[in-house]
Design a protein that fits this description.
The complex is a heterodimer. Helices cover 75% and strands 2% of the residues of chain A. Chain A is an all-alpha fold. Chain A has a single domain (56-283), classed as MetI-like fold, CATH 1.10.3720.10. Chain A has a two-stranded antiparallel sheet with strand order 1-2. In chain A, helix 9 runs antiparallel to helix 10 and helix 13 packs antiparallel against helix 14 (248-274). The mean pLDDT of chain A is 90. Chain B is built from 14 helices and eleven strands. Chain B has a five-stranded mixed β-sheet, sandwiched between helices. The chains are: A mainly alpha, B alpha/beta. At the A-B interface, strand 2, helix 4, helix 6 and helix 13 of A face helix 4, strand 6 and helix 14 of B.
């Protein structure tokens, strides 16, 4: 890379610093403030951090965010791989159409999708009506809506396109001749997948995983509107603390703790994925 | 310790000084009649037709600026990001927060003659007064938050204890809001209504147990009133602590009814208030607007279109009995059962309990 090309990144770096690092610095400062009669008072108080450290609720919700992110990542990866590989086999003209179809769910707003899920999964919804009509159940399945199952299902559905796209881009770059060579040398399709395709698509898997993890771990609307009484999230708590409670220091501390935890988990995920043999081969370093 | 208080007045003052805008001040004040006031309020309180009569009578246009939440309104005043608001809309139960923060102007009640028609329960409230004894806000619109229920499923009129009854497991909903939900649980476990917002730590612990025991019975916690309307319409929920909105929206489509529990009815009440930074030349118009909100024209149009009652008795006797019933003023004894949700001194403890219940 030449000196000049590197400088092209400067505006973006400045934007990242201004748009991300600066607000973070503000959060750090606020987390040491005190609140008195709805006024924020600059101080060097550890009250908020103390409250956070001793709150089982806060850490439970942070843990729940991590779990939700990891689970969604695993589900989308398992479901996304076959879809992405199938995409590579399509004719060029069909690929464009397939991608548009794949992204269709994202064109509707999140709120529209949430209320649509209620119509599909509700007690008097499509799925239950169908199962009742077929005589497969006697009573509506209540767990379909307003349960952890619903959150898992909808987060997986919402995030699947991001995973598929990322893996697909990687899979397109796999040299077909390598797969053919593996098959010619006697590898079963399963072996060809695990020893050739999977390692060579790890960068895509890593990109997809990090995207899906970030999007799903921080999701607030879907759990709160479809998760029923199990819909509490750390994000909603941060929102509540900034708004209703006017406890900006604790809100800041919780937001920072959540961010740090998610960052650590994401780094660990990236580290693990990119250490795989194939990833090293593709990236060419490490 | 330096206090970091950034309110509208100082923000504007700072801006004006910094940019040399103060030079423009006298020019702006040259015109005598106020051509427009901006009213920050809820969309349900401020339809354009509700303020038409005021605009005709005074020649001042009322520009409506709709609020998204009480907290957002408070934050906007606090940070100075709503500097164009001339009249604001704190709720009765949160008024003290605005007063304490110095965001509101003390009011001269002699400039609001229609106060004479106000129902006593609103006249008597101390919640609009500051520690200096002055009045900072005027209650103008109120209503009840009933239990909305499916009359075909609940043959007996529900009480708050219905919301804790295992018989209705999976059909109940509570609002995702600490203040009301905790108070309802307090009433359910037998704490009298005059103490429902004054719970001790021990009582809070008892309430928390009741709310955690209630969780498996609930279909969900509702977030917005549109959310709850949807839940009732789709049959997911058959009884919930509610606002009246789902009842009005669904009463022609299904058998829904409103219950007003004897244990205590949660009321809501919105207030008129003037931001402390309002320029002098607009103050007279703001008072005229306060008087309008307590007058006959506003009361008549909002009763007709929105099914809400103002705090003034000015047109009550001219309404049909049906309309009186619809807006809860047929039987005025209802006002004896009012409970005004009020942020308690230990509110942060309440919020903590609520968050623990939800994460349990």
């Amino acid at each position: 890379m030449t000196f000049r090309q590197r400088h092209l990144a400067l505006p973006v770096v400045v934007a990242i610093v201004a748009g991300c690092i600066a607000p973070l610095a503000v959060l750090v400062a606020f987390s040491f403030y005190e609140v008195e009669d709805f006024d924020l008072i600059p101080a060097f108080s550890f009250r908020a951090w103390g409250d956070l450290a001793t709150s089982t609720t806060d850490w439970f919700l942070i843990g729940k965010a991590v779990l939700s992110g990891v689970a969604t990542t695993v589900f989308t990866a398992l479901l996304g791989f076959p879809v992405a590989l199938a995409l590579t086999r399509l004719a060029a003209s069909a690929k464009g159409l397939a991608i548009i179809v794949l992204l269709t769910p994202l064109y509707t707003g999140e709120i529209v999708r949430i209320y649509a899920w209620r119509i599909v999964l509700g007690g008097e919804g499509l799925v239950n009506t169908l199962l009742l009509a077929l005589g497969l159940i006697d009573e509506p399945l209540k767990f379909l809506l307003f349960s952890p199952f619903t959150i898992g299902l909808v987060l997986t559905y919402n995030n699947l396109p991001f995973m598929v796209l990322a893996i697909w881009v990687s899979a397109e770059m796999v040299d077909r001749r390598l797969i053919e060579a593996a098959r010619d040398l006697g590898a079963r399709p399963v072996d060809a997948f695990f020893r050739v395709i999977f390692p060579l698509t790890t960068p895509g898997l890593a990109a997809g995983s990090l995207t899906v993890f970030a999007l799903s771990a921080g999701e607030m609307l879907t759990p709160s509107l479809l998760g029923g009484t199990s819909g509490a999230t750390a994000m909603a708590l941060v929102d509540n603390l900034f708004g209703t409670a006017f406890d900006w220091p604790l809100a800041s501390a919780l937001a920072l703790a959540l961010l740090a935890t998610l960052f650590l988990v994401a780094s660990a995920m990236a580290g693990l994925l990119l250490r795989l043999k194939g990833a090293r081969a593709v990236i060419g370093r490490a | 310790m330096q206090r970091f208080i950034l309110n509208r007045r100082q923000m504007l003052g700072g801006l004006a000084a910094g940019a040399g805008l103060s030079l423009l001040g006298p020019m702006g004040r040259a015109s005598a009649a106020v051509s427009e006031i901006v009213w920050a309020t809820w969309d349900s309180n401020g339809h354009p037709e509700y303020v038409e009569a005021f605009e005709k009578a005074t020649g001042t246009k009322v520009k409506l600026s709709f609020l998204s939440s009480e907290d957002a309104q408070f934050a906007a005043l606090k940070t100075g990001s709503a500097s164009d608001w001339d009249v604001v809309n704190p709720s009765l139960n949160q008024a003290r927060r605005y007063i304490k923060a110095g965001e509101l102007m003390p009011l001269d009640l002699t400039k609001v003659p229609n106060l004479a028609h106000m129902y006593d329960v609103f006249k008597a409230t101390e919640k609009v007064k500051g520690e200096d004894g002055q009045t900072y806000a005027i209650p103008y619109l109120w209503g009840l938050n009933p239990i909305v229920y499916r009359a075909d499923i609940h043959t007996e009129e529900p009480t708050y204890s219905t919301l804790f009854d295992p018989k209705f497991k999976g059909q109940l909903a509570m609002r995702d809001y600490a203040l009301e939900s905790i108070a309802i649980a307090a009433l359910h476990i037998g704490i009298p209504r005059d103490r429902a917002f004054l719970l001790t730590s021990d009582e809070l612990a008892e309430v928390k147990k009741a709310l955690i025991a209630q969780k498996p019975l609930l279909r969900t916690y509702w977030q917005t009133i549109g959310d709850l309307t949807n839940l009732i319409a789709t049959g997911e929920v058959t009884a919930a602590f509610s606002w009246r909105v789902p009842y009005d929206a669904l009463k022609d489509k299904m058998k829904v009814a409103m219950a007003k529990p004897k244990a205590g009815i949660m009321g809501w009440c919105d207030c008129f208030a003037i931001p402390s930074s309002l320029p002098d030349e607009k103050i007279e118009t703001a008072y005229k607007f306060a008087d309008y909100l307590l007058g006959a024209d506003y009361a008549a149009t909002i009763a007709e279109i929105g099914n809400y009652a103002t705090t003034s008795s000015i047109i009550r006797d001219k309404l049909t009995p049906e309309k009186q019933e619809a807006i809860f003023i047929d039987d005025l004894s209802v006002m004896q059962n009012f409970m005004w949700p009020e942020a308690p001194e230990n509110y942060s403890e309440w919020l903590k309990v609520w968050n623990e219940v939800k994460a349990a």
